[in-house]
């Protein structure tokens, strides 16, 4: 089962991806995580992507496509994959089509999580994460046991540089411009399923399972 998750920052893609990963063995491939790893390691790709990510801008298609293809080539995707955060533009979607065709693969379903923008601001600006283990918390919706510190590692929690209201506004503007073209692309292929992304995580997951026929 090969899937694509569409949705703006804060729509819940990561949470739902982990549920699908646990139930079906599909491998979550997050371009955001891959790019942040490249930045932390100081790779050539990471050095190119770092200033763009700090400004909340989209990383150029060739850089994103390159890091995704590298991940595909590492293998371990026998039970399927779930692309989280890619594609974000029509050229990326078309590049993904070509990449999959070269590797004899296809997308089974594209899930688009639909969430009102005012709720996205609340979710994103309250998000905090552990710099050591990556566990994500929310100051009001999912706080740690000890405020400001990770339950697992005890490390002080941090806010990602692109989780400020100003950076989020820029990311949403880009999203509004580009994603409708991506959705239309997959709708023409008969792959698109729109999911109401408001409610409990379990309730949203039930809707996703229905869309997948599982």
Description:
With 214 residues, the protein is α/β, with parallel strands linked by helices. It has a single domain (3-115, 165-212), classed as Rossmann fold (3-Layer(aba) Sandwich), CATH 3.40.50.300. The protein is 50% helix and 14% strand. It contains eight helices and seven strands. The chain has helices at residues 13-24, 31-41, 44-54, 61-74, 90-102, 117-125, 165-188, 201-212; strands at 3-6, 27-30, 81-84, 109-114, 127-129, 136-138, 192-196. β5 and β6 (136-138) form a beta hairpin. The longest helix has 24 residues, at 165-188. It is globular, with a radius of gyration of 17 Å. The N and C termini lie close together (11 Å). The model has no long low-confidence stretch (mean pLDDT 88).
The parts where pLDDT drops under 50 for at least 5 residues are none
What name does CATH use for the topology? Rossmann fold
Q: Proportion of β residues?
A: 5-15%
Mean pLDDT: 88
Strand order of the largest sheet: 2-3-1-4-7
CATH level-two architecture: 3-Layer(aba) Sandwich
Number of distinct helices: 8
Radius of gyration: 17 Å
Q: How is the main sheet built?
A: 5 strands, parallel
Q: Provide the helix percentage.
A: 40-55%
Tell me how many strands there are: 7
Q: What overall form do the CA principal axes indicate?
A: globular
The H-level CATH homologous superfamily, spelled out, is P-loop containing nucleotide triphosphate hydrolases
Our count of domains comes out at 1
CATH class: Alpha Beta
């Amino acid at each position: 089962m090969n899937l694509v998750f569409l949705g703006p920052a804060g729509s819940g893609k990561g949470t739902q991806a982990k549920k699908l990963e646990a139930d079906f063995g599909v491998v979550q491939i997050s371009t955001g995580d891959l790019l942040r790893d490249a930045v932390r390691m100081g790779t050539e790709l990471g050095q190119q992507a770092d200033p763009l990510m700090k400004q909340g801008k989209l990383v150029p298609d060739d850089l994103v496509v390159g890091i995704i293809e590298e991940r595909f080539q590492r293998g371990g995707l026998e039970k399927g994959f779930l692309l989280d955060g890619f594609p974000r533009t029509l050229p990326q979607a078309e590049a993904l089509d070509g990449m999959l065709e070269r590797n004899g693969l296809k997308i089974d379903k594209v899930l688009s999580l639909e969430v009102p923008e005012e709720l996205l601001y609340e979710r994103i600006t309250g998000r905090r994460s552990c710099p050591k283990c990556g566990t994500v918390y929310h100051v009001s919706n999912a706080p740690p046991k000890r405020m400001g510190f990770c339950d697992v590692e005890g490390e002080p929690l941090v806010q990602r540089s692109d989780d400020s209201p100003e950076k989020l506004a820029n990311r949403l503007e880009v999203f509004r411009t580009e994603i409708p073209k991506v959705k239309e692309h997959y709708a023409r292929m008969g792959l698109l399923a729109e999911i109401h992304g408001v409610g409990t995580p379990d309730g949203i997951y039930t809707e996703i399972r229905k869309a997948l026929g599982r």
